[in-house]
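queue> pop job 88
queue> type: inverse folding (structure -> sequence)
queue> payload:
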């Protein structure tokens, strides 16, 4: 009977230790012009960003939705807390935009996979695990740029 209790206890410890590794981690951001820094932007454009990391943080799948977006030409992940600007760490869109940009009203980029090679600046970490840790700490935001507001049309801090 004692052996059975020890086995059950060991199994419970093993399962609880492995549970976080089995879970996929999801982060989201709501984007609006009033979150732009150094000053809010008055715009009808809004957006939503979702990113989900696989269990070992070697890949992440993201979707960026923008509503009422005119002449958009770039979107990035930046490394900085709320109220601060920071460097681009991952390009989401716009490395080769059309001259007038994109007019977007709905899903702009969907079901796109990132891996460690997509990190262009290590300010938030050298790999996706580091990027996820920076997101957990409130240090990463999404910024969508337009021809009318090249420094940023809408922005949103990424949260778990």
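queue> result:
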């Amino acid at each position: 009977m004692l052996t059975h209790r020890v086995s059950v206890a060991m199994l419970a410890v093993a399962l609880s230790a492995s549970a976080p590794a089995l879970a996929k981690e999801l982060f989201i951001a709501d984007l609006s012009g009033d979150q732009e820094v150094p000053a809010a932007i008055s715009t009808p454009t809004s957006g939503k960003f979702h990113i989900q990391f696989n269990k070992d943080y070697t890949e992440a799948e993201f979707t960026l939705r923008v509503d009422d977006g005119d002449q958009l030409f770039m979107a990035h992940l930046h490394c900085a807390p709320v109220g601060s600007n920071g460097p681009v760490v991952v390009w989401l869109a716009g490395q080769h935009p059309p001259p007038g940009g994109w007019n977007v009203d709905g899903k702009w980029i969907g079901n796109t996979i990132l891996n460690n090679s997509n990190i262009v600046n290590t300010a938030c970490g050298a790999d996706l695990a580091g990027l996820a840790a920076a997101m957990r700490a409130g240090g990463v935001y999404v910024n969508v740029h337009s021809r009318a507001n090249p420094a940023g049309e809408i922005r949103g801090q990424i949260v778990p």
